[in-house]
Amino acid sequence: MKRVVGFVIVALLCGFLPGTLVYAEIAENQGLFHRQIKLYTGDAQDSYLLVFPVEVTQPGRVECEFKLLRPDEERYQRTLEKIRQERGKAFMFRWSLVDSRFFDQKKPMEPGKFQQWLQEANNYNPVEYLAGDQIRGMVRGAKAALDFVFGKKKKKQAPVYLHGYSQSVRFPHTPDNHVTTGRMRHDIDFNELAQTQGMYFLVLENFSQLTPELEVKVSFPGKQHQVDKDFLLPRDLGITALQVHGDHVYVEVQNLGEASLPQELYTRKGKDAATLMLWLDGKSWGGVTLARLDPAKNLLEPGGKAGYTFKVAVADNSEVVSKLTLPKFEDADAGNNEKKQLRRALLKGLTPIKELQP
Predict the structure, then answer these.
(1) Pick from 146, 195, 187: which is nearest to 167 by CA?
(2) What digits encode the pLDDT tens for the residues 64-86?
(3) What is the 3-state secondary structure (H, E, C) of 141-175?
(4) Strand duo 93-99 + 248-255: pairing
(5) Model pTM greater than 0.70?
(6) Dihedral angle over CA of 50, 55, 61, 63, nearest 10
């Protein structure tokens, strides 16, 4: 029984451009898929195949990079040479960027069906993909389409649903100025978006008996982050100011980390919500969620700040504590999630504030 696993990178690329423009303006991407992926064995007639989903929310450029992790370079070169002698072609992998017309080679997938399939597929784990008839059928369709696209019969032109492919891979020591090795990119224009309805797929294939581990990085104009822990830049939300003035308490929060925050942090509710809490003399006074603290979403990017004023009467000699509660969030420095101050009694019309260490 052949082993196939079907993850999906789906790019839902949508947006509008002035009619006079052909290509989207290339802006810094916010979406990121950065995962460690293992490819199992395949061969020239039956490749091991993976498909991965990503959702892009505006036009722009999709950039992909494929790097071998901890490679046995001597074995890699021996295998490559053996393939060259047997097939006359020296490649072991293939990465393809296609749109949804790829599966029946005629028309785009219905958006509703596509979204339903994507939601169901995301609930599976890799082992369960092996038993999924729906996934297996999609993989068979993908293999048939790839056999047609890259078969021996020469095509006059590339199919309209194929937007790029690469057969190279990067090593840990590959110089950065080797810009095309193990890399692929594609700019989406308005006309193409209209034709594809914005549904794209990245397909990974292994034709060798090697079982490499890959670092796969896909940057795209969107909001989703699917990043393995090993590749995460440190994220750090911290309280940088706490001030008590009359019947008002002002708290300032800053993104002190190196990475952007995930958009979904703003939509969490209940026990999973990111919350700024206020405590008076050891008792919880109340708090606000991240969405209310930072409606402008200034904290999304490193260095961003947001402030919130609680209207509360603070008695003399009271201890005021502000706390950030961040469930299911990898915070690089939990030590700055809390700040304390003691409001002293009035002295000559002033209100001195003594800051306490957490």
Answers:
(1) 146
(2) 999 999 888 888 888 888 877 77
(3) HHHHHHHHHCCCCCCCCCCCCEEEEECCCECCCCC
(4) unpaired
(5) no
(6) -30
